[in-house]
Amino acid sequence: MRRVAVIGCGGAGKTTLARELGRRLDLPVLHVDGHYWRGAGARRGDDWAEIHGQLIAGDRWILDGMKPGLLAERLERADTAVFLDLPRRTCLRGVVARRLRHLGRVRSDTGTYDRLERPFLRWIWRFGRDVRPAVDAALRSCECDVVVLRSRREVDRWVASLPVAGVERAGAMLVPALAGTHS
Fold it and tell me: N or C: which end of the chain has fewer CB within 10 A?
């Protein structure tokens, strides 16, 4: 995995998963929202398409976020897509917990301000009906490996199955890789 698109509904845990994948795979993590909402407000049209193109042009990245309008382009560049297909109630709880954690401050991980606004909550509630069909179609047409995770437990199990950069598995224990040793 060298270019990983982490997608899913708001509150599904995309940023948390992206950070852990970045740590385990030693890949840079890019947050779509941090680039989309930078400055005075949301990027529009060609401006956002150009920024998104620059984000996905790199050879190594984990890109966390949705913005469905450019999802096909992101999946075309990705070698792996991880779709967090969690229940909407789980996502709503995730958004509320995140909001309480940040209490009106700008998030240090994405550089965005977390708001509980009615349109965003409605988007989460209607994600399965309004957004998911397009996500499913994009995932079916992409040539990358697709991982669909449907619960926090599945996410935890999948992440635990991944290697940690610079660490080799020895039985049930993790031991640092022996780089540069001679027999």
Answer: C
Average pLDDT of the residues of the chain: 82
CB environment 60-69: b (16+ within 10 A), e (fewer): ebbbbbbbee
Close Cβ partners of 92 (under 8 Å, ≥ 6 residues apart)? 11, 121, 124, 125
For the chain, which domains are there?
Answer: 3-176 (3.40.50.300)
Q: What is the pTM of this model?
A: 0.81
pLDDT digits (tens, 9 = 90+) for 57-108: 999 999 998 878 889 999 999 999 999 999 999 999 998 887 777 666 565 5
3-state helix/strand/coil string of the chain: CCEEEEEECCCCCHHHHHHHHHHHHCCCEEEHHHHHCCCCCCCCHHHHHHHHHHHHHCCCEEEECCCHHHHHHHHHHCCEEEEECCCHHHHHHHHHHHHHHHCCCECCCCCCECCCCHHHHHHHHHHHHHCHHHHHHHHHHCCCEEEEECCHHHHHHHHHCCCCCCEEEECCEEEECCCCCCC
